[in-house]
Design goal:
Structural class: alpha+beta
Largest sheet: 8 strands, mixed, barrel
Number of domains: 4
CATH class of the largest domain: Alpha Beta
CATH topology of the largest domain: TIM Barrel
CATH architecture of the largest domain: Alpha-Beta Barrel
Distance between the termini: 154 Å
Number of helices: 26
CATH superfamily of the largest domain: EAL domain
Helix content: 40-55%
Shape: rod-shaped
Strand content: 25-35%
Bound molecules: ligand C2E, magnesium ion
Radius of gyration: 51 Å
Number of strands: 26
Strand order of the largest sheet: 18-19-21-22-23-24-25-26
Length: 696
């Protein structure tokens, strides 16, 4: 149908507009009968133009609609917008928006309508309504605080939970960002602002922060905040930013606890090994940047193990706590004191310009330990040995620095404890040597690398050989001959001393049986026992078994121990000592004059023999004090029924002086160096069954 044969003659332009419009356009008479429909309307309804022109407005209305908007509007003159469900030719229905208006042409009234399919728009609106409803629900029931921030007005809405979460009344503070910020921990404000700005500027993909928020009760709670921009303007500028704030205080507490446990020692609360080494690394890096020095002090408490063993772990723990406090007191606030474990501590002195700057702190440190510790009303003296290494002079990184400070500490221990020692290259070599010894010791016994040598012991009155001391010798294909002073302490530490000690004992006793049979049945053998062997529960059994395997009398065996065994304070020391002497074996205290030289030990423990250390004998002819001391020791020992052996007699004067002072026996290079079994056998043969007197 064209407009020419309709009622309205009009221009070509109108014709085109009406034909091309995507909206349906119709004209109907007052009964509803269509007298004009455009192509869009035909398409919307699915009917042909002819079919529609034979239809009525009410024919296309979907059935079962209570009110009849068409009927109401037909009489209305003004623009009327109605929504009505229409039915297409195929029976399907859709919601339409119909704008109707009565128009008057040539005195007749018609209904002019535009019709639009609005089903899509309605669906979208419905989703929006549903979403809004859901959001309201979420805001109400969520356990988290929810906020909605209108960025252009800088106002913010909070849900109820937001307030109650922090212990406030509902609406306790105005819904403004500034009011909210007043309750954020001062240290966290910059962090939040930075995160918000970077997220809104699109520099970070998400907004996710943790901060502290003031509760009503004036304590801070930890909050985790997450949010998202949900509305932006056409230029992409964010308008609305919404998100949640969750209370993560409990989780944070756990985290902090775990973090603390991972970084701090639970006894002393000092940084633990992990954190200390981390700080050491940082200190080295900083020193490198600033051209400065770091002094690393490695401390080990002297004889701490003894305290633990004799007084119990509670006292030991208390002592560690007190020691840690003293350490804290000597350093500057910027320095780190850390506990590496056991009785080992480190102090990191960073930012030094000269090595000498560490010196006063070290001395102050040792001084702190010269004061008595009082624990459970018990007075204890606990000294410490300190090793010092300097970065970058002594090491190129933190771990090397630690290693070298550690070996410097060992050196301090060797220098008699309660002192400090600086790291030197030589010391490092010393540590490497120790390592090599440890490596080679492994399996050395099975490879037959050990032998026992014998040093004759002389009766000073008649200069006869009355026995010998068994001394261990080690020849290793890699290291050559290693002196016992070097390897015994390593074997002590690794535990290798147990089988080694048994080897010496068995060899020496077996050999003694032969010498007793062939030369003199009063020949005495002395065997050294180390502290570790003494703690070995099998010791007594091994000794008994060894004696049983030969036919030497127990009185021919003498076991030498140093004061170290007694100092180690183990309860079973006395029991072991008693068991040994009950077997009829003699006990000798070796190296008397070094270490503590406590005469009280001689009274309290069942000793038979005292051996005066070589260092005293060495000086006795030149040093009158030493001579007086030896005199006193001999007299005292005799009063306690002990025989006295002088070690390391090298000169005739020493021998004669000792004889004058009443010393019973002696050994030393003057008489003989330690000999192989064969050489000893030859010597015994030469001295015609022990009746030989030394030609002096
Ligand atoms: P020690 O028990 O005090 O042994 C005496 C040490 O002094 C021996 O050193 C001996 O060779 C040395 N000596 C003896 N007379 C003289 C002398 O006139 N001048 C000098 N300068 N030295 C003399 P050696 O054999 O090197 O043993 C050193 C230490 O190693 C021993 O000291 C002992 O403590 C330990 N040792 C040796 N063998 C054993 C062993 O089988 N078991 C244990 N546990 N320790 C052993
Ligand atoms: Mg000895
Ligand atoms: Mg000795």
């Amino acid at each position: 149908m064209t407009l020419e044969n309709a009622l309205f003659p009009t221009s070509q332009l109108y014709q085109t507009l009406v034909d091309e419009s995507s909206q349906g356009i119709t004209v109907a008479d007052l009964k509803g009968g269509y007298i004009f429909v455009n192509p869009a309307f035909c398409q919307i309804m699915g009917y042909s133009e002819v079919a529609l022109l034979n239809m009525n407005m009410f024919d296309i209305k979907a059935p079962k609609q209570d009110d009849s908007p068409f009927e109401q509007t037909i009489s209305v003159k003004e623009n009327q917008i109605i929504q009505v469900l229409l039915q297409r030719k195929d029976g399907s229905t859709f919601m339409s928006e119909v704008v109707e208006k009565s128009i008057n042409i040539d005195g007749n009234t018609y209904v002019f309508s535009t019709i639009q399919d609005i089903s899509k728009r309605i669906a979208i609106e419905q989703t929006l309504i549903n979403n809004e409803k859901r959001n309201c629900m979420v805001m109400k029931i969520a356990n988290d605080g929810i906020w909605s921030w209108h960025l252009n007005t800088n106002t913010v809405e909070f849900n109820e939970r937001y307030y109650t979460m922090a212990g406030y009344e509902k609406d306790a503070f105005p819904a403004s960002v500034d009011e909210w910020l007043k309750r954020v921990h001062a240290d966290d404000i910059a962090h939040i602002t930075h995160n918000v700005e970077s997220y809104l500027a699109g520099k970070s993909a998400e907004y996710d922060v943790e901060f502290r928020f003031l509760r009503k009760n004036n304590t801070y709670m930890w909050i985790r905040g997450k949010g998202e921009v949900v509305e932006s303007d056409s230029t992409g500028k964010p308008l609305r930013f919404i998100g949640t704030h969750s209370d993560i205080s409990v989780q944070k507490e756990h985290e902090e606890k775990i973090l603390h446990q991972a970084h701090f020692d639970s006894l002393t609360f000092l940084p633990n090994r992990f954190l200390s080494l981390d700080r050491l690394e940082l200190a080295c890096e900083e020193a490198k940047r600033n051209n400065e020095l770091v002094a690393l002090l490695f401390l080990d408490l002297d004889d701490f193990k003894k305290v633990n063993d004799t007084l119990g772990h509670d006292v030991g723990d208390q002592l560690l706590i007190d020691a840690a406090n003293r350490l804290r007191n000597v350093v500057r606030s910027v320095d780190t004191v850390g506990r590496l474990g056991g009785d080992e501590f480190i102090i990191i002195l960073g930012g030094l310009k000269k090595i000498e700057e560490a010196q006063p702190i070290v001395e102050n440190l040792l001084n702190q330990f010269r004061k008595i510790f009082v624990i459970n009303a018990r007075e204890l003296l606990l000294t410490t040995s300190v090793g010092i290494a300097i970065y970058p002079n002594d090491a190129s990184d933190a771990s090397e620095l630690l290693r070298n400070a550690d070996s410097a500490m060992y050196d301090a221990k060797k220098c008699g404890r309660n002192t400090y020692s600086y790291y030197t290259r030589q010391m490092n070599e010393c540590a490497q040597r120790r390592l090599a010894i440890e490596e080679q010791l492994h399996g050395a016994l099975a490879r037959n690398e050990f032998s026992v040598h014998y040093q004759p012991k002389i009766d000073l009155v008649n200069t006869k050989i009355m026995g010998a001391e068994a001394l261990l010798r080690w020849h290793n294909p890699v290291l050559g001959n290693v002196p016992p002073d070097e390897f015994i302490s390593v074997a002590e530490q690794t535990g290798a001393i147990i089988p080694l000690g048994q080897f010496v004992l068995k060899q020496a006793v077996k050999q003694t049986a032969i010498w007793q049979k062939n030369f003199d049945d009063s020949f005495q053998i002395a065997v050294n026992l180390s502290p570790r062997q003494f703690r070995d529960l099998q010791l007594i059994n091994v000794i008994k078994q060894t004696l049983n395997e030969t036919n030497i009398t127990s009185g021919s065996l003498e076991l030498e121990i140093t004061e170290g065994v007694l100092l180690s304070g183990h309860r079973q020391v006395r029991e072991v000592l008693n068991s040994i002497t009950n077997l009829g074996i003699k006990m000798a205290m070796d190296d008397f004059g070094t270490g503590y030289s406590s005469l009280s030990y001689l009274r309290t423990y069942p000793f038979d023999v005292l051996k005066i250390d070589r260092s005293f004998i060495n000086d006795m002819t030149s040093n009158s004090k030493d001579k007086a001391l030896i005199n006193a020791v001999i007299a005292m020992s005799h009063a306690l029924n002990l025989k006295v052996v002088a070690e390391g007699i090298e000169t005739k004067q020493q021998f004669e002086l000792l004889r004058t002072l009443g010393c019973d026996y002696g050994q030393g290079y003057l008489f003989s160096k330690p000999l192989t079994t064969d050489d000893m056998t030859t010597l015994l043969k030469d001295t015609s069954s022990m009746n030989y007197s030394f030609e002096l």
